[in-house]
Fold this sequence. Notes:
- By secondary structure, the protein is mainly alpha-helical.
- The chain has helices at 2-59, 64-79, 84-100, 105-118, 123-134, 141-150, 160-169, 176-179, 192-204, 208-221, 226-238, 242-249, 255-267, 271-282, 287-296, 300-311, 320-330, 335-344, 354-364, 370-383, 388-400, 404-417, 428-439, 443-451, 460-472, 476-488, 493-509, 513-526, 531-538.
- It is elongated, with a radius of gyration of 38 Å.
Amino acid sequence: MKKTSSVLRITLLSGLILFVLTVIVLTVFYFVNISGTRMQRMQDNFTRALREYDMYANYIPGLERDFIKLNTDLDRLEKMTISVESWLSVLKRRRALSQVYPASFNNYVNSIDKALEIYPVSQPIIALTAEALVKNIAITREADEKLRGLIPALTGSDYNNLRLSLHVLLGDFRNPQRAQVIPDYIVSDGTESVTINLILLLMLKNDIRMAAADVQSMFYNLAPSVDGLRFIAEFFYDFGELERSAEIFSLINDEKSLSRASDALYLAGYTGSARNIWQLLAESGSEKSLYNLGLTSEDREESLSYFENLLSIDPENISDFKQFGLIRYSRLLELENALEALGKTRGLSPIGFPFIDLEICRRQTARWELGRQMAEAWLLIDRHPEDEDLYRWASWLFLFQRNFNEIKILLNRIENFGFPAAENNDYWTLVDRAIQQMFEGNIENAENMLKSIPKENAGWAVFANLGRIMEARRSAGLAVEQYELAMSKNPAPKTAARIQIRMARCYSALNRFLDARRSYEYALELDPGNLTARMELDRY
């Protein structure tokens, strides 16, 4: 009996437990079903409201009140969102509305901020945030910091274009220093535009070998477009593979590419081939080709003919080739004929073209006394006060005249005008100021100015004048080092000859007479008419 009772209790307890578990399971399924039904109902309501919005948006007349209603409807839709996808649907419509109704742009931005706060790792929302930050506004420091915080979250090749575009907008492609902040994890998605941008990035980072490898791969594997071929050809042109550059330019069947191919051939030493292309292009009136033919012709009459043809083309359409063609043309003429051509060629008035005005002034300096030369130089500058090249010429003239008071006035005026001190890495104003300081006896100031110029940007004049300073201090060995650096910058032959003469004098001071003789001989090779070198050489 006891045994039967015990079995009965166990059976009842097991049944009770099973009942409780069944109730729990059914309750869970009930609430899941209710929750799923509720979520589905919310999704259905959102989809229905979205459809109604689209129907209204497609047929509104476009009045102010219609746009305001659309904005209100989007506010209501925003409150109905239940997922990233539904948020993106709202943002898509807000974006479209802001394009036709700019007053709603702020609502679009605020909506993006809310979505990003809820879904901070959603890449589509991050992409929309970045786009909104750079749209129609200047990139402030705050926007810059926010964008730089967003970029690392945009992973994967789908966002390559966006990441690269943001780096461009933030100025990271501006110079090699800024390019270092761009991470190396950006990889090409195989498209031509991204590949080109990544090659440019490698060039900025000075990894030319890898850039060249990617250019080769792009040429052979991507079937580049016309613009892609042009990029590849320009790459080879810039990095010294001129024959390859000309070959690739020739694959593009347009006048511009043929012209660039001829440039590459000319620089590679194939002058005849380049002239053949220029003659072909000149038949269609190419001003550049006519200019190049006139410039490279070894026959004076032929050169005159090409320049005359250039100057006869459409006098109302003035290009740099025409302006400089007139200057080159005038240099083939006697002084009076040259001045007449420079002053009376139709469409090329000296008042409107400072380099023509400069050429007139330059040609006439030979027959003016020094005071008149100085006065005409100042009048030239006054006619074209914003052209820095004219100041540069005037400074050269005053240096040639040893008129250091005028140089001081001129350089002060340049500084007052606010011309950049190193435009295109050209520090000519600082060099001329240093020379002026040297002749006033301020040797230390001059030396500091010259040494402040980065070596990679310094021209021969920087090292030559440092050599003169070393000579003045009787440091002939240091002077020779500076003169050698000046020679490495490939100065013009006559200038190089003068540097060699100064080197020879330093060698003599060091009792290195054989080296001195070699320097004088080299000076004569560079400038056979140099009397100083010839006279000094006769002493050895």
